[in-house]
């Protein structure tokens, strides 16, 4: 009996699901706030940083951490290639739904799912040969150094000597590869936030995440939470230094942006690990933290479904209209009008209602152990 009590009573790492879950919860709430006001909760226009700007890179960083855990015994290339193809196909279908268009002449060929596909293949290739957390961090930093140097050298003629919406490396390379009509906003904005150029920088986030995963695996006694926390501190300090040369910019995935987002994600994983996974012989779900763990785990384990599902629901509610006395109105507008009839903060109430909807979905699927994976 004494020996059996000393064995870990669970194998799943709660901290990853919880960190991913928190990111998805924030994503659902922040991205569904109707337009008008609350600018500090929306994406920065160009240079700058807001909380919602950190969601996708944090998601991508944890993607790297999950890969390290999932592929610790090796990869099956056939499955990797099939998954990559599925991500690309799903990404194109997703674009058709959210843009509500079947016009192939202007169909955007890039996107978040396509970025995941590209990053997955690149990361598996690199980590086939290199698994040392320190080496992976150094490679990620080298990638950002090369990317930052390229950004600066190609922006000398731009305003302020820095990349601008219509003067940047993405506008040059991604337009040549995909064609202006198949870029983000059909090339009208002059850059692609999920194009080849920005994906090169985003690869650093995945490698930082993979390094975190390796720390969790190789530091089994402590879970590596101290090392992960130290890595987060170093990345944030480096981000603040790089920010002086290349300011935070999500649209171009600037090196400073990649570093700060990876650092913040490291803080999240380290904190949740200390909170829920550090005590090997105690299941966090059976403590006072149980409800929080279950709530975030439910979102985290169906993160892809909820993260992309919220955009699909938003598109449906925006493009499906009903006839009213004021003419044809989208479902989203009708819902907001109803909320305005009783709430002093209708926009935030709308977002909370969307969060409640996805909470019911997440908890129901989690209870039934149904998890949608790509």
Task: Give structural notes.
- By secondary structure, this protein is mainly α.
- Helices cover 63% and strands 2% of the residues.
- It has a two-stranded antiparallel ribbon with strand order 1-2.
- Strand 1 (321-324) and strand 2 (327-330) form a beta hairpin.
- The longest helix is centred in the first third of the chain and has 23 residues, at 77-99.
Rg is: 21 Å
Widest sheet, order of strands: 1-2
| Nearest-integer average pLDDT | 93
Elements, N to C (H/E): HHHHHHHHHHHHEEHH
Structural class: mainly alpha
The helix content is 55-70%
Query: Gap between N and C termini, in Å?
Result: 41 Å
Q: Mind describing the biggest β-sheet?
A: 2 strands, antiparallel
The number of E-state strands comes to: 2
Q: Tell me the overall shape.
A: globular
Oligomeric state as shown: single chain
List the helices and strands and how they pair.
Layout: H1 2-5, H2 14-31, H3 55-70, H4 77-99, H5 112-129, H6 133-153, H7 169-178, H8 196-218, H9 225-243, H10 255-277, H11 290-301, H12 303-319, E1 321-324, E2 327-330, H13 331-340, H14 346-367
Antiparallel strand pairs: 1-2
Q: Would you summarize the structure shown here?
A:
This protein is an all-alpha fold and 374 residues long.
Features:
mainly alpha, 2 strands, disordered N terminus, 2% strand, 374 residues, two-stranded antiparallel ribbon
């Amino acid at each position: 009996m004494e020996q059996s009590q000393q064995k870990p009573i669970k194998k799943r790492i709660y901290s990853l699901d919880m960190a991913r879950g928190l990111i998805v919860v924030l994503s659902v709430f922040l991205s569904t706030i109707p337009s008008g006001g609350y600018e500090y909760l929306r994406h920065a226009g160009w240079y700058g940083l807001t909380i919602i700007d950190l969601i996708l890179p944090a998601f991508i960083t944890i993607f790297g951490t999950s890969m390290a855990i999932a592929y610790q015994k090796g990869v099956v290339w056939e499955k990797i290639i099939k998954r990559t193809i599925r991500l690309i196909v799903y990404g194109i279908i997703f674009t058709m739904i959210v843009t509500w268009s079947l016009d192939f002449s202007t169909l955007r060929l890039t996107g978040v799912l396509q970025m995941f596909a590209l990053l997955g293949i690149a990361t598996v290739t690199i980590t086939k040969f290199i698994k040392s957390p320190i080496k992976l961090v150094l490679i990620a930093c080298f990638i950002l150094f090369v990317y930052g140097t390229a950004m600066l050298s190609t922006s000398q003629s731009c305003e302020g000597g820095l990349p601008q919406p219509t003067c940047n490396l993405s506008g040059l390379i991604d337009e040549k590869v995909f064609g202006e009509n198949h870029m983000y906003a059909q090339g009208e904005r002059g850059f692609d936030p999920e194009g080849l150029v920005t994906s090169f920088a985003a690869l650093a986030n995945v490698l930082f995440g993979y390094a975190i995963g390796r720390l969790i695996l190789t530091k089994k006694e402590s879970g590596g939470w101290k090392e992960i926390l130290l890595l987060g501190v170093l990345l944030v300090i480096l981000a603040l230094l790089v920010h002086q040369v290349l300011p935070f910019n999500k649209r171009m995935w600037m090196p400073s942006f990649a570093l700060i987002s990876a650092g913040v994600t490291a803080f999240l994983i380290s904190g949740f690990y200390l909170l829920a996974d550090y005590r090997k012989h105690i299941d966090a779900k059976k403590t006072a933290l149980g409800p929080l763990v279950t709530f975030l785990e439910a979102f985290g384990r169906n993160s892809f479904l909820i993260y992309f599902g919220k955009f699909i629901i938003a598109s449906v509610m925006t493009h499906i209209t009903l006839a009213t006395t004021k003419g044809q109105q989208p479902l989203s507008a009708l819902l907001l009008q109803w909320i305005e009839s009783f709430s002093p903060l209708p926009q935030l109430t709308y977002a909370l209602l969307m969060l409640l909807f996805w909470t019911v979905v997440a908890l129901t699927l989690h209870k039934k152990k149904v998890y949608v994976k790509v």
